[in-house]
Amino acid sequence: MTTALQRVINAHDKGFQRRKQWPELFDLNSWQESVSYQLIKGHCDKEQAILEIGCLTGHHLILLKQEGYHNLVGIDFCQEALGWAREHDPEHTIDFRVGTYPTFELRMDDFDRIVLFDVIEHVHDKEVFLSAVHDNLQPDGKVLILVPLGTNYCDEGHVNFYPDQRALKNLLQYYFTIEKCSIVDSGTKIFTVCSRRSE
After folding, report:
1. CB distance 43 to 142 below 8 Å
2. CATH code at 184?
3. Which of 5, 24, 110, 116 would be a feasible disulfide site paired with 138, CB 3.0-4.6 Å?
4. Domain containing 82: what range?
């Protein structure tokens, strides 16, 4: 196992352990009105194939399932978090998988939506990772990205920093067409919607 992979896995495991300090983070009702969930729901249709990379406890996907979305896949590195997600999936039909890094070899089909919320700031090999995201996206699909805004994070797992929208756009423009980029969540996050760039 590479050092970079081990750091990513450790960061995810620590993130899950920290989360246990706040029971409200495991309460589906508290996530129902969250900015992150509303952004996902606002950009996804019930018939679309949706992949969330870095889903951790799967709250977004479980809530989507409860609202009638049915083609859902979640990937994370933290097996304990995925165990919690599988246990709380009401019908046990969401496909939760332990991921690989920096690529993820799904290849079962392409996705209409790929969600990367609080993920890219953790990725060491952004080029390989974003190429894999591109390759798993339908030609008319969209990638939804949410990253923290700023240069001084408190999370030791953060290796990439986005002090403004331009910094994120500069990264993404090589892989995607940027359709929307805005500051959200009371000025703490950058939200971006991208489409697959033409070859």
Report:
1. yes
2. 3.40.50.150
3. 110
4. 3-196
